Amino acid sequence: MTSPTHAPAGVRETTEGTVYDVTGGDWDQIAADIAQSDDERIIVNMGPQHPSTHGVLRLILEIDGETVTEARCGIGYLHTGIEKNLEFRTWTQGTTFVTRMDYVMPFFNEAAYCLAVEKLLGIEDDIPDRATLIRVLLMELNRISSHMVFTATGGMELGATTVAIFGFRDREMVLDLFELITGLRMNHAYIRPGGLSQDLPPGAVDALREFIKKMRKNLAEYQKLCVGNPVFKARLKDIGYLDLAGCMALGATGPILRSAGLPHDLRKTQPYCGYDTFDFEVPTTDTCDSFGRFLLRLEEMHQSLRIVEQCVDRLEPGPVMVADKKIAWPAQLALGPDGLGNSLDHIKKIMGTSMEALIHHFKLVTEGFRVPPGQTYAAVESPKGELGVHAVSDGGTRPYRVHFRDPSFTNLQSMAAMCEGGQVADVIVAVASIDPVMGGVDR
Amino acid sequence: MSDEHLNGDANGAPPAPRGGRGEVIGVRHGMFGASNGGDTSGYGGLVRTVRLPGASERPYGGPRGEAAWFDEVADELEGALEEQGLLPENAIERTVVDRDELTFHIAREHLPRVARTLRDDPALRFELCTGVSGVHYLQDAGRELHAVYHLRSITHNRLIRLEVTAPDDDPRIPSIVDVYPTNDWHEREAYDFFGLVFDGHPALARIMMPDDWQGFPQRKDYPLGGIPVEYKGAQIPAPDQRRSYS
Question: Could you say which enzyme class this protein belongs to (chain B) (predicted)?
């Protein structure tokens, strides 16, 4: 059994049973070889369960001393097959899935998906103004909460716990608004093909105005806390460098692209949801580094707050769902004693007085609406960059194929370009500046 | 514009165009996709042909609210290909304008050349590729697998689509990673889910699914793997086996 050149594994009898001592073999020689070599090149797996990799991201780093010589990403740990799942649900049910992709920016997923479905249906012009306005309002609030998560987690990774706590505190304010408006803090499925699931609840406008006042005060704190802070600057400046040529080649969009000096923002270049009627600016820097991206996101939050304010000022009563009853979900939601549900009046009407309304309700909910065959691409400027939806219909009641071009997925590719040649500690900063959310990367 | 049949659908007209135009991608029978037993609904004899929007005639026009730049891009692309000694009709199989979007169907062997031309020609300048999306048309014989690329020109503020097909039994498409490095992960994703083999990709490995996974999950013939649910003796089949509105 054992070869004569190697000592057999030692065996001890204990009260627990036999214990084998597995040494010997050629491991001694391997260990000796490593001990002799002065090469400090090692390969480190960071993640997929590392607290500072934003979820289940696995970084494979080849390290020479403190220097990263090569860096690669391992992804897929959060793949849930959402795109495949969509093909087995109706077009309306799709929003319930897509909102869970990048769970930090659910409204952008929903809006992009619904814009694509509406384009396939050819009803872009029929979406009521109030629905579009509330979409913009929610997207901009969501941009603030997404950037807050970036600020908070980025701060936490640097050990700046105050920034982390401030960030999550302010994000919570936004999530409270979401809860008030949609009923849920995340995973809303509030934006639906054709409009919204329901109108703003009473008191929402007051809460929004109160929020704008508070947030304007709080945003100034980050300026004071971070922008002049020498430690913060030392950790972020010139880290995660990616210039314009690199951004274009790697398809990086959003704050990464704008930190390289290009003011590319789909809200300005290809306005959707009436963004061309709002007054806001697209900030840029030319530092190409993490500090620049941090400053950009801070400024973007100010700009988003401006848009939110304009939305609130412009809100006027009106429908929030397309008039076409063949598409509009036949729901008249009301707050019942058991939480959200269809209003009793509506149920009484369809159950008691109109057989046709009941049939229609049943058909639309179980079967859904048919979408003319064809394909389309709808893109929105999400907090992370261009979020594109490629939707294909074969004329059925379910999507034939929906593909999300998630900005986190694309931007994460630039991790290697940002990290190689730098220090291990700077990998954390560079990855944080990409702001990847694995729910979006893996879908 | 060739999409008259699409806009008149608000009143619930049947969505599939009845005319002869368009690319047939499938034929549907019945209403509930029933293949396990008789269809007693009375809709069993229903036959519907599914057509995707077909090739468009010039002038192509442009998206609403913008200058009519579709013809300009098509002219420039055809001209630039001709300059390189490549006949445009060999490279561009079909040009489709649908829903304000311009699609070039490209012969797969010419894809890298076309992509490079689109990127480098100053009049085209599509600098940003937003990746590749696979689509599996099970009934589109001989061209089942489609790879769809969206290219954005930041210089000219335009967006176009390229579509390339490959048959199921030879799922090979040339990689355009050396033109657009951003497609590295996107092509891996399309390979992972559709089994599209991108020739020339530097490391075409699975990206989402485990490395030892068998099969390509987003192909339409890939079984979902659900198990039938039994309740009081009745069997409810797995989601992809159930009857559904087709």
Answer: translocase
